[in-house]
Amino acid sequence: MKHTKFLAALAVVGLAAAACGSKPVSTSSSSSASSNAASFKACMVTDTGGLDDHSFNQESWQGMQDAASGSGGKIAVKNATSASENDYATNIDGFVSGGCNLIVTVGFAMATATTDAAKKTAAQKFAIVDNTSVGTTIKGLTFNTAQGAFLGGYFAAAMTHTGKVATFGGANYPTVTVYMDGFWEGVKYYNAQKGKNVQVLGWDETTQKGTFDSSASPFTDQAGGQQIAKTFEGQGADIVFPVAGGTGIGALAAAKASNGTLKAIWVDDDGCLSNASYCDIILTSVTKGIASAVKSVVTDTAAGNFSSTAYVGTLTNDGTGLAPFHDFASTVPASLSTELATIKAGIESGSIKIASKSQP
Q1: Per-residue pLDDT reduced to its tens digit, 302-317
Q2: Per the structure, how many domains does the chain have?
Q3: Which residue in 51, 32, 67 sits closest to 106, CA to CA?
Q4: What is the 3-state secondary structure of 133-197?
Q5: Backbone angles phi, psi at 316, to 5 degrees
Q6: Is 358 inside a domain boundary?
Q7: In terms of domains, do 280 and 308 share one?
């Protein structure tokens, strides 16, 4: 994924906070300065994790801004943040009334609100991140992150020193468990190939049971994420893979405080860019190409090429994958990098099958 404008995205966070639970507002002076002259207006509603979640909301907004900055002033973008699920419908309705040509909603949890809005406004075009297409006016932007997470699981199994790795989720959503399934399968594949017995704490694909944040804000609960990671550390895990948005930052904090005992694999974007202060404990990241997918649907719709055919991000189209190893590049054996490339090719060709039922 592209992150060259990451700092610019962070700069709008303060303004975004004012939009929580209120009418949609513009939060980017650079991309909305020409909104009066822009012929196309694209508007985004966040999930409850907030615009600065270091995850899918932030990546989606980056895609919106990329579309605007590349349009020569023809596209203006706005966003509204949702403090709770009660804000979804209000924010969407505000953008419908505001004349947005395309409304992008972010997250699996927004499916019902998006579908309800589409039923009331037949001409309104929507795109939704992490959910499938519905009818002719809602384009789903989905990602087979089980593929990228399979590589992450294999990598973790190869890098562990204790023989135990861990994963946990924010909420028990298919878009969360698909990562956990892939990670689990990657570890099991490593064990089968190497005759090892690396254990996965926090998830069992066969039972679909595991560890999730129990708070009312499962994607922003950094204290909860830190405690979960500490518990895994106490159980012997030395690598943790949080699939929990901002809650996962707590896991990074736990790894940082462990003085090298615990390390992490980040999720959705390259954690060394989105969480730079934790780069020294992030081995790699399982990425999801949200920014590029959002940019494409905004740009295509502005050009009159909207289609409700679902987008599916895969290893083949860079919709998922592994980020660079950054600070750990010198410690990753060349043989492991070769194995990962071979496994990637096997997944793409279909010779390696991924069983997760949560795959799009």
Answers
A1: 999 999 999 999 999 9
A2: 2
A3: 51
A4: CECCCEEEEEECHHHHHHHHHHHHHHHCCCCEEEEEECCCCHHHHHHHHHHHHHHHHHHHHHCCC
A5: -65, -40
A6: no
A7: no
